[in-house]
Each structure stands twice: as C-alpha cells, then as structure tokens.
Amino acid sequence: MSTPKPKKKFSRRKFIVRSTVGVGVAIGATYFTRPLWRRSIAGFVNSAELPYNGSTDEPRLWFEVTADNEVILNSPKVEMGQGTFTGLAQIAADELEVDIQQIKVIHAPTASGNIDGTSTGGSTSISSLWQPLRELAATMREMLKIEASKQLGTDAAALTVKNGVVAHNGQTLTYGEIVKNVTEWEIPETPPLKDVSTYKFVGKPVPRVDLKDKVIGAPMFGMDASLPDMLYGAVVRSERIGATFVGADTSSAEKMPGVVKVVKEPDFVGVVATSQMAAEQAKQAIKAEWATERNWQSEDIEAMIKVGQGDPVTIQKTGRAKRILDNEEEVITAEFTSPIGAHAQMEPNGAVAHVENDNATIIMSTQVVNLTRKEVADRLGLAPEDVNIIPTYLGGGFGRRLHTPNAVQAAVLSKAVGKPVKCFFNRREEFQNDTFRPPTHHVLRGVLDKQGKIKAIEHNLSSGDVMFGSPMFPGIAEPVLGADVGAWRGGMIQYEAIPNFRTVSWRVKLPFATSWWRSLGLLANTFAIESFMDELALKAGKDPVQFRLEHIQEDEAGHRLREVIKAAADKAGWKDEVVNGRAMGFAASTDARTPCAQVAEVSIENGEIKVHKVTCAIDPGIAVNPDQVRAQCEGSIIMGQSAAMYERMFVKDGQLLPTIYGPYRMALMRDAPKEIDVVILENADAPGAVGEPPLGPIGAAIANAVFRLTGERLRSLPLTIA
Amino acid sequence: MTISFNINGQPTSLDVDGDTPLLWVVRDMLDLKGTKFGCGKAACGACTLHVDGKAIRSCSYAVKYAEGKNITTIEGLSNGDQLHPVQQAWMEEIVPQCGYCQPGFMMATAALLSEIPNPTDEDINNNIVNVCRCATYYRMRKAIHRAADIQSQNAKNQPS
Amino acid sequence: MKKAHRAYLAFSLLLGLLVFGFSTPRSHPPEPKLPERNKSTAAELTPEQAFDLMMEVLTHKRCVNCHPSDDYPRQGEDSHIHNFGVQRGPDNHGVAALQCQTCHQSENNNHAGVPGAPEWSLAPRKMAWQGLTRVEIARSMLNPDNNGGRTLEETVHHLTEHELVLWAWEPGVDANGTPREKPPVPKAEYIKAVKTWAAGGAPIPEE
C-alpha cells in the first residue's frame, strides 16, 4: 500500500525564495548594468552555491513506503550517468534508517508534483539536495516513528529504528506495516540531523543503484519507451544554418506504404507511420523548402569569434592590470582558440507522446522536466498540470537535453493522429541540429616582476552564447549580466595572490545554436589560462607547480586549490623533465568551487600525441560516493581529452559537419589513458560539484606535456602537432 | 517475407520486409530493448549483438540474413540468473555511467573473449572500437581483463 | 537488369560522352571523361589500349581502397584510413571481434550507407596495389607468387566475374546517402578490355 498523495499546499519557503528572486531581478534591471555591479554579480555567481529550485518541505512528495518495506525515492533529478540516483539513495538511507537495498530510486513524473523547477545540470544535484534531502528523510523517519508510536501505544522518543524496522520492548513494526494503517500524517518540525561521521552509506563507495539493471540491458531510456497502439513519427529538419521553414511538397510521402498521416505545421512538417522504417523513408520523400540568408563557412565563424569584437564586460578586476600591461615593455602575449564541439551523446533526442482529451503524456530523456512541460503545454494550449512529463534514464545528457523541442514535435504529431507517437532524431539530424559548444578565442597578457612572480595578468575571451538565448534563462538577465555566465565559466583568474588581474568576456552571437556542453566554458578557458601559466612559469625559470603555488591567496578557496595542486604533484611523482620519451604536463582549475589539478603523462608515438597516464586530485568537499567521484573524474578526463585532442565541427556551404561518429572523431578505447589515478580531498564540510570540474585541466595538462616533448606550444584545440 | 531464427534460444518466426534492419525487428517487433540505436550507420556499436556467436552491428544488418541463425542479445547473454563473465566483471568494476552504450560493448567483449580468451591491451584496442560518450573506457579495459580471468577460472572449475 | 541491357546502357553512355560531351547533374559525382586514346570502341582495341582501359579501373579508389599496402582498409572518395582504425586481421577479414562482417554483409545497405558484397574483405597483402604504378600492379597481378597461384585465365575470371570486384559498378551510397563514385569505365567496356588484353597475350608496357 502506498502513502496517500498529499494535496497541493502553499509552500512558505518557496514563496520566500521566489519573491527574493523577483526583487533581485527588479533591482538588477535598474542598477546592475553598471560595470562595478556586473563584476560583483559575476564574482558572486562564480562562487555561489545554487539552491535547489523545488519543493523541499513535503516528505511524501519524495518518499513512498511500500507494503514490502521498500522506500521509493521519487527523484526530481534525472540520472544521466552522473550517479545522482546513487548519491540520493545513500543520503536518504542514512537519515531514513533503512538499508540502501531497501531504497528504489525512480524518476518523478511531473504529475507526482515533485518537480525540479530548473534543471539537472551544472553539477548541482547532490550539492543542492544535500541539506534538503537529509531534512526530508529525517522528517519522514520521524513521521513513521510518530505513527508507529500511535500503533504501539508508546512515546515516539522511546522507539528504536534500524533497517526500516521500528522496535519497542520486543514489539516490532516495519515501515511497510506502519503505513498500512496511516490515515492522516502528522508532520513534525525538522528533526536535528545526524552527525555526518555516523553515516553508514554517505562517504562509502556503494555500488551504483542502477548497476545491475545497466549490466543486463534492463533500464528504460527515452528511446525504449512504448505505449499501446503506438505509431512512429519523423520530422523533417533543416540541414542548413539559419534556415527557416517555408513549406513542403508531401505528395509522394503521402502515398508511401505505412504512412498514416503527413502533418503540416507552420514551423515544421512531419509524418506518422506504422513503423520506424516507414516513417524515416516517408520523411526522406518529403521535399521541404527552406529559406536561408547566407551560405556560412568555417572562416566566417572564425572571423566572428575574435577578442575585440562584440560586447565586452569586465567580469573580474583586482588592481590595475590593464594599465600595467599597456605600459610595461616585457609583456608576454599569447592567443588560444577552441573549435565548435558536438554533444554526440549516444541516445538521440526524441519523445514518446500521447495527447488525448486535453491531456498529454510525454515519456522521454530530458534534463529540464519543468521547461519541457511548459513548452508542450504552451504549444497544445493546455495548462501545465494537464501535461505529464515522465522522465526516463538518459542515454547521456552533457547539456544536450536542456533544450527539448523534440517533445513539442512528438506531442503535435500525436495530437494529429490521436494515438501515441514515438518520434526521434536520426544521427545526422542530431549532429546538424545540435546546440553546440561555442568556439572561443582567448588573448592572454602577462608580465613578471624581478623576482619572477606575476605582476599583472589579463584574460580576454570571446565566445558564442552558452546561457543567453536559452528559454531556461530569463531574458532580463542578459542586460543585467552583460556577459554570458556559461561562456566565462572557468575564465576567471584563480591565482588571486597576483596583485593585478583582470578578465574580460566578449559576447558574440553566432548564426547557429550554441549552448551548454558539459562544463561549459571551463574546458576552453582553462586550456588557455593554464597553458599561459605554464609559459609564464618557464619564462620565470620556475617549476610550474611551485610557480602556481606562489600565486595562490591565503583564504579557504586558496587553501583548497593549493592542496589539490600539491596532492596531484605528489601522487604523480611530478618531475619537469623528459624521461624515456615521456613528459608530464600540469594544470589546475576551480569550477563551481571545486578545485581540481591534473598531471598528464604524454609521449609522441608515430607523430601522434599519446596520453599514458593522468593523475587527478580533486576536492569536492564531502565525497558522498568516493567511487562515483572517481568515475566522474575518469569519464571527464577522457571526455575532455577527446574534446581537446580530436573533436571539431566545421561549417561548409551552410552545413555543420560531420554528421556521424568516425568523421566526428572522438576518443576510443585505444586513445584513452591506461592509467587514471584519482586522489580525493575533502576540505569542505558539504558535497560540492563533481561531474564537470575534472574536465577543466586536461587540455592544458596534455598541451603543456607536449611542449616539453617537442618545444612547440599548441595554442588551438584540437591539439595537433606539426 | 517470413523469416525464422532463434533469438536468445527461442525459435521465432516473423512476417517482415526482409530489408528491415535486424535492430528494429529486435526492438520494435520482439520488444527486446536492451540493444540500442545509436547512429544507424554501423559507426558507434550501440546495436551490437551476436549472430551465430559473432559480433554484428544490427542497425546495418538486414533481417533477411538472419534466416535460420542463432541471435543473442544482451537479454540472452546471461545463463538464466548466472551472469556472463563479462557482465560479472562489469558489475565488479562498476563500469556503466549512463549505460546506453554498455550492452553493445558487453556483446562486443563477449565475442572477443570467445575468440581470444586472454586478450592483450592491444587486442582490446583493435577489437573494441565502440563509442562511449561518458568515456568509461578506463574501467571497461579493467573489466575486459577481469572478465577474461573469470572466464578462465570458470573453465578450470568445469569438470572435463 | 539483364546483362545485355547494361552493356547497351554502358555503350550509350560512352557514345553520349564522346558525341555530346555529356554533362551529368550536379548532385551526382561527375562521370570522369575517358582519356583521348580510348576514342574507339572496345572491339577495336589493341591489347595495349585494352591495358590502358583496364588500368583506369584497377587504379580507381573503388579498387585500391581494398588493396592497401598496409594493414588498414581505406574508404571514401579521398581514400582515408577506415574510420575507427579498422584493421586487416590475420586472414584479411578483420580482427577477432571486429570482422568485416560485423558491419559489411553480402549486399549494400543503403539505409545505413554501409557497402556490402559477397566475401567483403581486403585483398591479401601480396596483392597490395596502393602506391604502385600500373606496370607494377599488372606484374603483381600476373605473378603466381602474389596472386594466389592463379593462371592468366583464372586471373581474368577473377577480374571479370568476381562479385566483390564487380561491386565497383554498384557501389551504393555512403552514410550521407551520396552515391559513391564508380570507376571511370563502364563495366562492360572494362570486362571486354580485360579479355582483349588477356587474349592479346597480356602485354605489360614499358613505363
């Protein structure tokens, strides 16, 4: 038997949060466009802890106790590989006093009411739910104890609880037995939380809760969803940059076998058929007409992404870096670039939609359940409550599923035929209609003092948009911030003991969609800054690790950064020399307050860069699951290596290419380092970001190693040696 | 046309257009969803399954070729509740992240181990060229070696 | 399509090229023009002219891509190393769990753009043509040490009847759905040229 669903109720906490945001935005619109304010906001955003945006005061939205004493955890965060389900289960189990095996984590459908108002992204799931989820679980435990005390006729304080069994004087009740007889729940004040050191699951390398399913092929991803009587849809998508839909000749498609209906909408044309194959073939028979204004080429894009073009915003300023650098003589200047990157996640985007009787059900992989629901509701003219988004496991996220027009298209097709419709991108469409990682250009300037320390440093970065233009992001924020928070992620100088430093972000709007790609600007910005730090260290005649340590300030962030730098160097046995054809390269970054340092061991084999080993030290604060922290580091390092060494989209005759794995070269088994050594430090008293920070250092670490092998400073991603 | 084959030990007959990719037959007609669609171009390996014990990328394999053959998908890799050594190793090393590409990798690895019971790192590099975007390659390599150990241990324990 | 039809079509195409300077639609790869020296019908070819015509085909990427001089098949119109570092393997059919047949079947798959033909595989190392001159290819082809002990008659049979060889004229489409470029000589002309060359004693010119 399940716990009764609570009625919607007014949440005071939510009101407070929302009105604060509202007031903030109003003030922001008036004052924050001033440079000093913009810098303050940028600084705040850079080190802010993003709160969870959803209900956290109703335990029954989150937990459902079943008759066989299992606790279902309705997760508003989605599982896309980052291990969030496992971390949430560990946190909940410890406060609920159940064994982790008793917890089953599922994706909360929006109809459950447990909705994340923002997204699963930004490496915030565990950090933002750490406090609320513990409080919810502890409250749920107390609620169960209160009900047990009524049923056992004793005081709740006298009860003991273990593994979901409440005991008193030899009498026992399981949680499952307790809920059977509950008619009305009493919700107590939030009880005190346990001491973190007493937790049995938090802090332990518990195997992933989805492990067994994922090894036997059982989990349901968006593309695995099906409904009775389901038909298959396909949507014609543009292959050219900036194309707008004009119309389509669908006459031959309409006559094809298996075609149920051709659906013409003002903004797209699609087809519904009885099988995946029939839909795909009919789509190819539709002759769509598109209007394009320009035949874009890679050179056009490269010419746009240049520091000095577009709108500059100074996001960081201490001392008088610009004045010093404009006047000194021994200024070192270097430029860096990064290319357009594709998400290339393995599961294409799509949805299974069923629209009937003014209700819509959408089953899909999405990182933005709330936005998806809103967009489907708006298009169908329904209230959001009439749309139920049922999230599934994601076949990779990486930011690709923060835009979900695919849900709207599937819903429109379903409505047109009155039956469930499954509609997915094919791989070519996935590559051509991606929301890409924007290309970047960086200009670094620095000058050393007589002691070989940095006197002044400046980072100018130019990037396409990441957050701006996203429906997730209120339009008002653009003029307030001026600079795209996503684009400059990782772009600030983290060595704050330098007396004069400055970062300027230049915004460029590109003709194709650019957006969030795991770690956003971190990959490119760190590549530029940390390659430059290496140059400055060599110029100063100092060891690059020591050189970095000399420029770190004495505060908490500085302490944590210093410790990961030392730990990575120690563990790797850091030596700034070439041994047996192998060299080490060093780099460090701080992202979302998590510092990470890496040492890459590299050689050149048959004219290609070979990465043998990466040592990584990371300090995410409390590591809820050390094994999954390691897994995220390993994956981030190889994904970052892949982006830094191989990946590049280009633009030819108005098309984004390539459109398939292989030509879009990514790291394979043979390319990945055989050894990855991860050291976890926990110099903060709460869990922080894990899933993205380790993507930062790898590009520069590899490039810095290559410099030691070849004497060539690689300034462009993907790294290629002459 | 009517096509008959064994899938995961079950004899199956279907009326289907012979040019339909085996992947869609397995997923949509037989409702075995463990085999994944990644690219439809035999480029990523997410759809890898076994036909007569050999690794096949089923998105590019017309179902007509399957006539009279034995097909194994990830759902049929284990022996009942007894996981295949590759699956056991994948559990021990906690390989999957998002998990989408993993069935293809495990099927490719199982095919590799049946041909080369103790693969070297170079064998692994040359044979396992599927794509994993979570980039779980580091653990996969460890798991492949571990699976080879489990398999040879099982072989030793089997009465001859 | 019947063979006679194909021959007729090929002949018409050739005629079109010669007489009208035939231009093909832009969406298809251009049909390369035949060299000047072949301005005669195959029936009238000397064995030397037949050699030239045959070599137009044998040095084309549809042939050479699978006759590499190293252990990596080539692919595409630019003959790049096969994606994913696919390898020759011990018997030219790929490595243990990454056989050619993992992806390539006995026919082209035009949904996927994956080419296929019976016995899809690499030519043995001894039959490597990549980087060889026409003369070197011809010598190698006739050398029993390299060609698997074939007689001239058997070599002609391989060149004119083997389905994998003849696939070059039905190469299907690539992953983008673009038709693959065919060899510059129509199939019937090529077959005739091979036979004319062989019948004339398989002369190999001095170059």
Question: Would you kindly provide a brief summary of this structure?
Answer:
Chain C: InterPro entries: Multihaem_cyt_sf. The complex is a heterotrimer of chains A (about 725), B (about 160) and C (about 210). In chain A, about 30% of the residues lie in helices and about 20% in strands.
Low-confidence stretches of chain B: none
Task: Tell me the structural class of chain B.
Answer: alpha+beta
Radius of gyration of chain B, rounded? Answer: 16 Å
For this structure, the CATH topology of the largest domain in chain A is Aldehyde Oxidoreductase, domain 4
What global shape of chain B is seen? globular
Number of strands of chain A: 26
Per DSSP, the total helix count of chain B is 5
The strands making up the biggest β-sheet of chain B line up spatially as 2-1-5-3-4
Fraction of helical residues of chain A: 25-40%
What do the pLDDT scores of chain B average to?
97
Distance linking N and C termini of chain B: 44 Å
Structural class of chain A: alpha+beta
Largest sheet of chain A: 7 strands, mixed
For the termini of chain A, the CA-CA separation is 68 Å
CATH 2nd-level architecture of the largest domain in chain B: Roll
Identify low-pLDDT runs of chain A. 1-28
